[in-house]
Design brief:
This protein has 6 helices and no strands. By secondary structure, it is an all-alpha fold. The termini are far apart.
Length: 111
């Protein structure tokens, strides 16, 4: 019985660690505007609301500044990322999209 209990206790921790790793992958993919990597990280259990430790910017705000595609942003929106989440400086993904003149992203954020 003792070994069964230790397995029960370690399993949730393992899931949490893999989820954290997937979330870090997601944040890096969002910074690179890599739609495939964003989707892969989400399928691995990444938190769509992961934030930068430095600036507090959510992944969604990084995807809001992508120039060539709004796919990474769309993947996060489908995963129910918080649209109104703000960074440490108070800016949301919509603020970023407007500042970077990303009309398609801004439109998706206000749908």
């Amino acid at each position: 019985m003792g070994s069964a209990r230790s397995i029960e206790h370690t399993q949730p921790r393992f899931e949490s660690e893999s989820s954290r790793a997937a979330s870090k992958l997601l944040l890096n993919a969002a910074r690179r505007c890599d739609a495939d990597a964003v989707q892969n990280a989400l399928s691995m259990g990444a938190d769509p609301n992961i934030r930068s430790e430095h600036s507090g910017r959510p992944a969604l705000s990084f995807t809001a500044q992508c120039a060539d595609t709004s796919l990474p942003l769309q993947h996060l929106l489908r995963a129910r990322a918080q649209v109104d989440a703000t960074a440490n400086d108070g800016r949301s993904a919509l603020h970023i999209a407007v500042a970077w003149e990303r009309g398609a992203a801004a439109s998706k954020l206000v749908e």
